[in-house]
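This part of the workshop introduces the protein records we will be handling. A record pairs a protein's sequence with a compact description of its fold. Comparing a sequence with its tokens is the quickest way to learn the format. The record below serves as our worked example for the rest of this section:
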Amino acid sequence: MHALIDGGRNPGEREHVSDRAFRVLKAMRDLGNGPHSLRSIIGRTELSRSTVQRLIQSGMKNEVIWQPRHGYYALTENREKADPHPWQCVPASASTPGRHALGFLAEQSGHTAGLHAAVLTDVPVQVCVGCLDSPNGVSQRTSLGRPRPLAENAAGLAILAHLGLPHPRPGERHAIRFRGWASSPGPAPDSQMIAVPLLRFGLPVGALSITSGTDEIRGRLAAHVTALKRAAGHWNSLTARSTAAEIRNSQCYPKPDSRADYRADL
């Protein structure tokens, strides 16, 4: 397949998509061990921001590129040499409500439950921040703490459906939003993952997932979807309660007297 390049060459000249990918990889190699900002990579390639973002997303999916922190990327081969800054991620879904919802889901479903954070960097990714394995499920522990592309699994697709970004399967975006859950192959052979998004004010901050054998998921799909939606509702309730408590305790407001406090709790 051919496509016009974004800039830096004769407008009538065409270039393979693979050539663009090599331009991104060469730029990152020439910049050194890294990590490098998205802006510096774009400057070296003379490609558009959207094109570089798509190619970096593909590189992360194929584990050629990794993202150690917000807005910075490096070649995986230079991981040991790169500037050792820890992964920075303190998502809303990793808070106490998230942990409670994860435990609730594991108990309700009887299968491996996962809690995934949406990390909305230049190239949005997901991070599995919690996992409760079950003898009846498929472990997700190998992905704990690792940034993964949104298109990789059901948790990421559930998040992606609520973002204004290109979707790998455009027809599925509306279906996910309409039914409220996403599905994908699981991390092990003959396994499947289903997931629901965690939304705050209409924006995705994470997702909850169940992972188990394909036959088990398909055979009890309605029950598993119900467990996921109940767990997400549990998270919403706890998060709203926590937010209300923070507002009441905020120093921006005078401390209410006992009668006002009672009215507020009705």
Q: What stands out?
A: The first strand starts at residue 2 and ends at 4. Residues 1-12, 83-94, 246-266 have pLDDT under 50 and may be disordered.
